[in-house]
What we know:
The chain has 199 residues and is of the alpha/beta class.
Amino acid sequence: MLExxxxxxxxxxxxxxxxxxxxxxxxxxxxxxxxxxxxTSGGKILACGNGGSAGxxxxxxxxxVGRYERERPGLAAIALTTxxxxxxxxxxxxxxNAIFSRQVRALGQAGDVLLAISTSGNSGNILAAIEAAHERxxxxxxxxxxxxxxxQRALRDTDVHICVPHERTARIQEVHILALHCLCDAVDTxxxxxxxTPP
Length: 199
C-alpha cells in the first residue's frame, strides 16, 4: 500500500508536467529573454520566496552565480531569503511584509529582474516586493500556482507570469523547480550555444 502511494506521487507529478509543458513553455521562454537581457547588460536578478519557495530562490541563485551544468562565468543573482539579520531586523522594525520589498528598494536598479515565487500567488511580502520592483523599473518574473492569486493582478504586461495550473502545493513546487532548471539551461544555451548533452 505504501509503495503504491509513493508510485502515485511520481505518476501525478509526471502527469502535471506533461499537462503544463505546452502551457508554460512560452512564459518560460519569455522569462529567459528577460533574464538574458538583464545579465548581458550588467544587471542582476533578485530572487525571493517563502518556505520551500525560499529554498527555490536560493537554489536558482546558486545555479546562476555558480553554474548549472556547464562551465561559464558567474551570472549576477542574489537570493533575498538568506540574510537572517536583515530579515529579522526588517520583520521587527517594520513588518514581515517588508522583508523583501525593502531589500528590492535598496539593491534593485532599472534593468534588474525580480524573480518572485509564491505557490498561492497571495504572499503579502512577495506582492510588496513586486510593487517595489515596479518602482525601480525592474521586470518581474512571477512563479505561482492555482489561478495565480493576487500576483496575477499585480504583474504588468511587461512582466512574465509562470503559473502552474494545480491546487496542491507540492505539485506546484515540483513544476517550479523544473521551470527554474529550464531557465538556467536556456540562458546557458543562449550564452554558450547548444550543448552536446541533451536536456
